[in-house]
Each structure stands twice: as C-alpha cells, then as structure tokens.
Amino acid sequence: MHQKEIAISRRVVVTGVGLLTAIGDNTAETWKSLMEVRSGISAIQSFDATAFNCRIAGEIKNFDPTRFIEKKEVKKMGRFIQLAVGAAEDALSSSGLTVTEENAEQVGVYIGSGIGGFEVIEREHRNLLEHGPRRISPFFIPATIINMASGYISIRTGAKGPNSATATACTTSAHSIGDSYRIIQRGEADVMICGGAEACITPMGIGGFAAMRAMSQRNDEPQRASRPFDVDRDGFVVGEGSGILILEELETAKKRGAPIMAEVVGYGMSSDAFHFTAPPEDGEGAFRVMRNALRDAKLNPEQIDYINAHGTSTPLGDQAETIAIKRAFGDHAKTLAVSSTKSMTGHLLGGAGGLEAGIVVCALMNQVAPPTANLENPDPACDLDYIANQPRSMKLDYALSNSFGFGGTNGALIFKRFTE
Asked: What pLDDT, in 10s, does the model give residues 321-374?
C-alpha cells in the first residue's frame, strides 16, 4: 500500500508540445492560425474527389516528410507515421529532451491512430488486383499497422521504456496521453512521448464517412463548413495531422531544467454502452467521463475555466455534448468558456485528442482561450458560451479537453497552469 501511494503521488507535467496540422507545420504556426481564426479546410487536392458528396478536408499542404525523415525511410512509413514523427520532432525540440543510455529505459512512447495507414492499404490493394501478389510491397504491413508510429519514434529516439499504441477511434490520442500520465504516476517511466496521428484523407476514408452521412457537404464554402454548435451545421470535416506531448515526472523535469508548460492533473474514461456510432441524446457517457476526470483531479466543477470540446459539428453530437456539460457542471456551465477548434483544423479522428490537448496547453501558457469559428447562428439547443469567432484573453487555471469516439469510448483530460 505504501509503495502504491508513493507512485500515485508523482506529479506529471508537460514539457513539450508538437503539432502538425492543416493550419500549421508546427506548434507555433498552429497556435498563431487559431489566434487569427484561420481555417485549414479546402477542396481536396490529394485525389480527384469530383464524384464524392463531400469534396473538402483539412489537408496539410505541400507536406514534405524528408524535412525530418531520411528519404530512404519515407517509403517504409504510412503517412500517419510520417506525421507522428514530424510532430514528435517538434515536441522533442520544444522540450529539449535527449534520450541517452542513462535515461533510455525511463523514456517511453505511446502513440495511437484511429485507422492507421489507409492510403497504403488502398495502394497495395490496387497492386494486388492489377499486378498480382508478387507486387505487394514488403513494407506494406509495417507501413500500415497502428503501433508503428510508436515503434519508429522509439527506434529513432532510442527510448527503451514502455512502448504501446491505442486505437480507440476519435478518443485514441486522449487515451494515449491519459494512459501515459498513469504510467508516470505509477513510476513505470519518468518521461512519455505520447499522442496520436491520423491520415485518412483518401478515397475510401472520405467515401466511407460520407456513406454514413456524417460529413459536411458545404463544398462551395470549405472554410465555413465546420461550424460546431451552429444551427446550420451539417456534419464534420476530416482533417489530418498529429499532436504529440512530452509528459514528464516533475522532479525529473526540474532536474534537467526542462521548460514546464502545464501540469496534467486529471484523466477520465467511460463508455456510452449505447450505439456503435451515435451518442445517447442525454450525453450520459460524456457526462460521466468529465465527472470521472474531475474526481481524479480532486476538483470541484467550478474550478474548470475552459473546455476544449469534442465539438465535431454534427447535429446530434454537439447537442449531446452541450447537455453533458450542463449535467457535469451544473450552474457553472453558464459561465464556462467552451470552444471547438475543429472548426479550423478539421477533425483529426485518432489524432484529435493529441492536437487538442496541445492546444489546451498553449491556452494555459498564453492565458487565451481559442475560438469556435463559423458560429454565426447559434443553435438554441446549444446555449453555452462557445467563444464565437474571436479568441478571448482570460484567466485560465484549469482546462479540460474532451474526446469521444465510435463505439461509445470517451476520454477527458484536465490540465493546470503550472505553479510550484
């Protein structure tokens, strides 16, 4: 019992953030775009989407993986792995972390993806059909499977601690970060490189989500298409990218003089146990995951200043999340600041939680809450303060990030402005 209490008492801080998105090639550019309310949604360029109902997405333009990956290695990696490597490089640079022989076994990697190497699967399936099995690439499997983002980053950095990956749909990155938080709390590692990446702007990816009628068809106004909590919202917009955090045990971070950006203080998980794609109308699973995170952080609801909402811009999802926030926060919900940055980045699916956790850390550091873009006609059923269309300077001590995924899997993370 005594050992368990010591392990759980370990404080965990964020010492690095790496973001690679449709609105920025790194964390600084992504944050700047959010502050300028700049959308990264545009007509799809990576394939001919003429025949598709949805022809828009949050693509990373002119992405060049050879900026941080050796050319001969690029062909061995699916795009989601390349994005994870790029974001991890950004996070490690901001953290100043170097993996050495002395600390390697105490540095772990935990990076997930909702779908993995979709474009590789499509390409190699064409090869099989058109040219036969002998033309399937020997790199097909390692370029595709979800844990290879963690695997490659471990190999590249020399991190020899825990190495794992989640695949919990749109909650993937939140679970990666939350589970990494627990690993450090328990004393199984001192540092975790964690988050997620997604790259499924492909014919099958877009076609599959469009077939579910889940995506916006506002093709003529791509930058105005993602409009969480707006009465005219008509579905989400897929984005690609990666969000990676460096989590570190506090004393380890202080000992090496690391920049401490925020503290992780709460993590919650829950399941809707309701439907494979739709949330319950009363937001019951989302309510419980926020409640669980608050309990873990030992916080009263009134102490949360800002929520980065899951807010995908779907009619049912946004309304259910609004109800859940009201249930979790009571009267305080009326004064809470809430926003969905997916309105500008698109929905990174398995990468969303990592991106949005990084955005929350930036918000705490800068004492500015990012806005919800395109909120022009608020839905009467979504009646909270969603920071419409302009960022807001405000006192931020505690902030929460929500992630909800298909299968009814939910995750919530609470971060605190760092103080001794």
From this structure: 999 999 999 999 999 999 999 999 999 999 999 999 999 999 999 999 999 999
Distance between CA 102 and CA 107 in Å, rounded?
10
- pTM exceeding the 0.85 threshold for the entire prediction: yes
DSSP classification of residue 171:
G
Both structure tokens of 405: 């995924």
The dihedral built from the CA positions of residue 152, 153, 157 and 163, taken in this order, carries a sign that is: negative
DSSP codes of every residue in 329-398: HGGGGGT-EEE-THHHH-B-GGGHHHHHHHHHHHHHHHTEEPPBTT--SB-TT--SB--BSS-EE---SE
Q: In the numeric block, which tokens belong to residue 70?
A: 């050796």
Q: Any idea which residues carry the catalytic annotation?
A: 170, 310, 347
Judge whether 2-255 and 267-408 match in fold: yes
Q: How far is CA 14 from CA 263, 288, 293, 363, 414, in A?
A: 6, 25, 18, 13, 12
Q: For the domain 2-255, what is the CATH code?
A: 3.40.47.10
- Architecture of the structural domain at 267-408: 3-Layer(aba) Sandwich (3.40)
Integer Cα distance of 212 and 231 in angstroms: 20
- Rounded to the nearest 10 degrees, the angle between the axes of helix 118-131 and helix 203-211 is 110
Query: Nearest CA to 325 among 402, 406, 390, 414?
Result: 402
Count how many residues are written for the chain: 420
Whole-number Cα distances in Å, 354 to 52, 335, 361: 29, 26, 11
Domain ranges, ordered by start, for the chain:
2-255, 267-408
Residue corresponding to tokens 């020399």 = 158
CA–CA gap between residue 166 and residue 288 (Å, rounded): 21
pLDDT in tens, 195-233: 999 999 999 999 999 999 999 999 999 999 999 999 999
Question: Do 267 and 293 contact (CB within 8 A), yes or no?
Answer: yes
Structure-block tokens of residue 269: 């998980």
Please, are residues 396 and 370 in contact by the beta-carbon 8 Å criterion? no
Question: Encoding tokens for residue 137?
Answer: 């690439």
